[in-house]
Amino acid sequence: GYRLYDTANDAAGQVRYLIENGESVGTVPATAAFNPIFLQSMFGADPELNQQLSEALATAQREDPSLRQGEISAMMVTYRKNGNGDNADSGQAQDVAVHIFGDLPLGRRQISMARNGFFNVQIDRGLWDMGNSILSVLGRDLFIVSTDDEIERRQQDILEAILTGDILPLVDLISDAPLHYMIVFPNPRDMVPTKLRNHVQAVVAKGVLSSESAEHEITVLARNEKSASLVSSILYDFRTAAILALRSRFRGVVEDTPWGRQVPVWWANEMAGTLEQVSLTREENVVSLKLSYQRTMVNATLKSIERFGRDYTRTRGVNEEKLDPRYVDAQYLKSRSPSHYWSTRHKWGPNWPFGAPTNAMNQDVELPPEELPPVTQPL
Q1: What's the rounded Cα separation, in Å, for the pair 53 and 130?
Q2: Cβ(93)–Cβ(48) under 8 Å?
Q3: Quick check: is 77 in a domain?
Q4: How many domains does the chain have?
Q5: Tell me: the pLDDT tens digits for 233-272?
Q6: The pTM is what?
């Protein structure tokens, strides 16, 4: 317990230092991050993916040479595969887009969450501060490039939609075909607690998101076997603490009531169940964390993205652009009334945006009704 608290406090102090000094998480020069050898070592040996990735970055640098002067804190590659039918998730990579985070000479706005937003209300203050700090120091800029102008435009549109709390374009995208992604942190030293700084050498995340399921894997390359043992122990502690918080503080449990079995907070129950199924393995100096989940948790994930976007819009409209909150609600958030938070297309409960087949509904557990009062209820 003390080790977990001490490590979390250490991590919060580290990101607070980065915020106060206007710094980002560990970065590397763009020229190094865009090197073909580095890209292949980080993103794997898929020749088609690496070719499209290198071509997209080369095109972006030709069109905007100032990119070479930047510092890269993270790179995310999204793509789909050209399989058909039952093999839709196989085949070669296509629709490759590269999302570059860092200190780029573009002067774009930082992404952050609202101080009076819903994440701040529902989660622990310390956790919110830490999460917001990490978002802020991930990079001052976000840049998207692709070999296809249409793909680049679509990714830009999806990003803009997400940042205004509209997840339906993303929903449409993954409805057509599963969306694959890979995220690489070239220099993760400053994104981990101080006590782990000399133990972690690289962090890579990858996964796939579809309408019915999702798979994610985070791989941490440690300096040696002893470092890997320490990293795996701390990750296990964080997992255990998160499960306890979801089960107790957020009531993510199934309760027996006079009216039958009910789930007070469905998304907390889903998240806790997902974390309980997480696989944490260690082999020599590599620590891997794997998790997978089904449609209901996919909906919880998408609604979390939606909530972040609406918080961001409220921050931008009210705090930065000094607009009337009612105008922000009506024009940007498209809420049902100026005093409400969710959009008119939002639906409560675990069966939106992806609904359950009629014969797959769970009859044993009675979930809360979808038409709950806005704002005061969970997701």
Answers
A1: 32
A2: yes
A3: yes
A4: 1
A5: 989 988 998 999 999 999 999 999 899 999 999 999 999 9
A6: 0.78
Residue 103 lies in a domain: yes
- In 3D space, the residue among 305, 11, 31 whose CA is nearest the CA of residue 171 turns out to be 305
359 falls within a domain: no
DSSP string for residues in 261-325 = EE-SSHHHHHHHHHHHT-EEEEETTEEEEEEEEEHHHHHHHHHHHHHHHHHHHHIIIIIIS---H
* Distance of alpha carbon 126 from the chain centroid: 19
Secondary structure (DSSP) of 195-240: GGTTTEEEEEEEEEE-SSEEEEEEEEEESSHHHHHHHHHHHHHHHH
Cα four-point dihedral sign 118, 122, 123, 125: positive
277/264 Cα distance (integer angstroms): 21
- CA distance readout (Å), 229 to 10, 15, 282: 19, 24, 7
Nearest to 26 by CA among 200, 141, 221, 191: 191
Say if residues 292 and 270 touch (Cβ distance below 8 Å).
no
Measure the CA–CA gap between 365 and 351, rounded to whole angstroms: 14
| Burial status of residue 359 (CB atoms within 10 A of its CB: 0-12, 13-18, 19 or more) | exposed
Residues 338, 314 contacting (CB under 8 angstroms): no
